């Protein structure tokens, strides 16, 4: 897990400890969380609520094993658009949200415009998604793929 700078933002050392504990185990009870960070239950609960209200903690979710669900193939697709005007970018952004196999989409500063993390069952499925869904998104000029051979670290690990 990345370490966060100690001196940035309006949160203090205790807030950061709460965040780190919850990143490790989001199912902690408030009582256990308070014990781990050295607070009593009510102040810990108030801090946690403030961190959620202010958007530092955006939510809680189960970390699913995609391989066990038959989604073991990961590929990254570089996407270059025909143009990067506001209208083209909006159209692409809206449409890419509809491609369920796209797990992440990042706008990139570089030789291409977007980097997509795509998860499918296998390489044949990826080829189909790339050819029929991603390449046909609005304003796509070209794509380039990088197929993952082994995952070393992934979010949620």
UniProtKB/TrEMBL annotation:
Record keywords, A-Z: Activator, DNA-binding, Transcription, Transcription regulation
Keyword field contains Transcription regulation: yes
Any one of the GO CC terms: cytosol
One Gene Ontology biological process: response to amino acid
Span of domain HTH asnC-type: 11-72
MF terms (GO), sorted A to Z: sequence-specific DNA binding
SUPFAM superfamilies with a match to the protein in the record: Dimeric alpha+beta barrel, Winged helix' DNA-binding domain
Stored Pfam families: AsnC_trans_reg, HTH_24
Keyword ATP-binding carried by entry: no
Protein name: AsnC family transcriptional regulator
Taxonomic source organism: Croceicoccus pelagius
Classification of source organism: Bacteria, Pseudomonadati, Pseudomonadota, Alphaproteobacteria, Sphingomonadales
């Amino acid at each position: 897990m990345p370490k966060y700078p100690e001196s940035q933002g309006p949160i203090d050392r205790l807030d950061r400890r709460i965040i780190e504990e919850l990143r490790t185990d989001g199912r902690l009870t408030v009582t256990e969380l308070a014990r781990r960070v050295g607070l009593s239950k009510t102040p810990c609960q108030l801090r946690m609520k403030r961190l959620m209200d202010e958007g530092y903690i955006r939510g809680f979710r189960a970390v699913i094993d995609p391989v066990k669900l038959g989604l073991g193939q990961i590929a990254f697709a570089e996407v270059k658009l025909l143009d990067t005007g506001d209208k083209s970018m909006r159209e692409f952004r809206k449409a890419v949200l509809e491609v369920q196999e796209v797990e992440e989409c990042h706008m990139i500063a570089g030789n291409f415009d977007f980097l997509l993390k795509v998860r499918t069952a296998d390489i044949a499925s990826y080829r189909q998604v790339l050819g029929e869904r991603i390449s046909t998104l609005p304003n796509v000029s070209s794509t380039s793929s990088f197929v993952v051979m082994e995952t070393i670290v992934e979010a949620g690990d």
